[in-house]
Amino acid sequence: MIKCLSALVLALGALALSAPTAMAYEPVNIVHTERVQVGPYGLTVGFSTWPVRAMQSLDFTFVPEGGIAGKSGTLRQVHQDSQQAENPRRGRNAPLARHPRKREVWGLDIHSLNRPGTWSLAFTVDGPAGRGEGVLSDIQVLDQPGPPLALSWAVSALPLLGLVGFLAVAWRRTPNERYEPVAI
Fold first, then answer.
1. Which of 68, 92, 158, 181 is deepest in the core (most CB within 10 A)?
2. What's the pLDDT tens digit per position in 82-102?
3. Cα 30 to chain center, whole Å?
């Protein structure tokens, strides 16, 4: 009994000591940066993967000179296809928020651009020096990595199709006997 109790205490101690390490966030690893002038503010845009590929999750960081204290901003992502080239203001403004794993900067965590082509990131920053606007243009997004999406879905659906086939065969082989109530 004492051996079991000491083994249990040892296992719980090892679990308690390793939990903070296991729950720690992986740091944001920036491999490429670009500079943008957003009015009176210099802004460094960081990418965790370069070159950028469509449908591939990555981290974006947005670091204004002097930090984010006392500043707010918005981000608009614009895909430069034939329709949007005529209207470069098209796109949705999203407020810039702190990166969840790098709290001292703005950023997007595990974000992906949904299609290949040329993209632009339009920024608006409000701060002590006033309002500024700037655009990081000509970001080339390559095709999505790996096999085509339809092929990936088809391969991943094979086990489900096998299960449906198995259940259909099992159902057909089950005798269809009708049980009548027995009179007592």
1. 68
2. 444 444 445 678 999 999 888
3. 15
